[in-house]
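How a chain folds remains the central question behind the approach discussed here. No coordinates are needed to read the tokens, only the vocabulary itself. For completeness, the protein is quoted in full, as a sequence line and a line of structure tokens:
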Amino acid sequence: MAKGIKDKVAIIGMGCTRFGERWDCGPEELIVEAFGEALKDAGVDRDDIEMAWLGLFFQEQSAGKSALPLSMSLRLPNIPVTRVENMCATGTEALRGAVYAVAAGACDIALAVGVEKLKDTGYPGLPERSKGTFDDLWLPNATAPGAFAQLASAYQARHQCNPTDMKRAMAHISVKSHANGALNPKAHLRREITEEQAMNAPMIAAPLGLYDCCGVSDGAACAIVTSVEKAREMGIRDMVTVKAMQLAPSNGLEMSNNAWDGSYLLTTRIAAERAYKEAGISDPRRELDMTEVHDCFSVTELVVMEDLGLCPEGGAIKAVLDGEFDRDGAVPCQIDGGLKCFGHPIGASGLRMAYEMYLQLLGRAGDRQLPSPSLGLTHNLGGHPFRNVASVSVLGLHSA
């Protein structure tokens, strides 16, 4: 019987570029920047890497359709390189490929890289995707703000929330992310905002205002992984290991069955349940020390707190306003600023989340360091609430 991958794979090096409007760089330069940090951190040579995965979402706009941008940019020694794409879970999908290869014994050391170059492509305005002509996933007139505004409305209707309280909770989430991002030298947005600014910002798709929405960025992130046994041989004693990696794509139920009322993220609940089982977590609120979740919109973070079991159903507004997910709260969320402020280069975002967990677990997060965390969770959501892919990963400290 399969037992999962808990504590079979260690992350021995990670790197991440500064996210933002990187007009001076192409995707290849961003890959090199992230890889250089990871390689130095891991203390291995480039030629020690035996397999690699490249996460890249917008292939035509970023770096090309194949895995060649990674192999050629890093001058990898003709090793197998696989390009993967899974919407906003693309970076996590690259990491999952590398982790599974090591766990399976197919190689000793593997590389995962996620990259996206979007700021000089026209994507931030009204790209083809938003016009409903990009591919069959994106329905006509179904913009991302519109779809997640529907999530907010459905949540509000189901739980009979006071609209002002709902708006205040979303504003609190945005204020928190900006405060955390201000402490992060690699974040795209490093300016704090007030609750008043968030509450009174121009409306994008009611009830989502300007500060309830994340933008997109240029950037890359990278991880080097090996087996726990190999890490011990390398002299690593206190290491970050993968406790669980789970993925749950929609199968059509949300769009075809009245059992789903649009007020929660079904795939996130499924992925979380599987991840907790794999990691041996029975009480996530008590056992998790921190989270990085897919805050493409402030309401997404709010709803995900319930979907991950970090507060009771219908209790997210109170939990948010009580500061339970602030940096000094019970389960800090978006310690690095999240998608909202660190940024969202789509192919890199999942690995960026793992990068923050890695730094925090090893006590290297600088001004935003939490006190002695030992277990963290990352969550990606790619697509719309009614049709998406969700990934949930758990990373933690492991002593030899």
Remarks:
- The mean pLDDT is 92.
- The domain at 9-123+216-228 is CATH 3.40.47.10 (Peroxisomal Thiolase; Chain A, domain 1).
- Residues 52 and 81 are 5 Å apart (CA to CA).
